[in-house]
Amino acid sequence: MVITLDGPIPNKKNNKRHIVVRGRPVTIPSKQHQKWHENAQWQLKAQRVQSIKGPVVVDIQVELGDKRKRDLDGILVSIMDLLVDNGTIEDDNNTIVQSLSIRFTGYGEFKTRISIEKI
């Protein structure tokens, strides 16, 4: 299965808010990240992405629309959390995701290609 996401992907690790709930500090994703996450879920629904049960191999190719430096590991975290939250894959632990790769493919548009294969 191949999924395409349009638009820049915010780094979940660097986009957090700290709030207090019942007297305890809690860290939650930023509003920007939440908005991206919701939009990305709609993109997955529009592509009729199906759930895959069991072990998978995930390959991610990231094309950037500008020349700002970005951490690929932050993009990776955002994408993997999206796939789990959407039910595309069961989990992102090593028993489910047995191979994982991400690579920068150049500049052009903000476009991310995600290939998921069942093992």
Describe the structure.
The protein is α+β, with helices and mostly antiparallel strands and 119 residues long. It has one domain (2-118): Holliday junction resolvase RusA (60s Ribosomal Protein L30, Chain: A). The protein contains two helices and six strands; from the N terminus they run E-E-E-H-E-H-E-E. The chain has helices at 31-46, 72-85, and strands at residues 2-6, 16-21, 24-29, 56-64, 97-107, 111-118. The strands form two sheets. The chain has a four-stranded mixed beta sheet, with helices on one face. Strand 4 (56-64), helix 2 (72-85) and strand 5 (97-107) form a beta-alpha-beta unit. The radius of gyration is 15 Å and the shape is globular.
List keywords for this structure.
single chain, 119 residues, alpha+beta, 60s Ribosomal Protein L30, Chain: A, four-stranded mixed β-sheet, 2 helices, 6 strands, 38% strand
In short:
The protein is α+β, with helices and mostly antiparallel strands and 119 residues long.
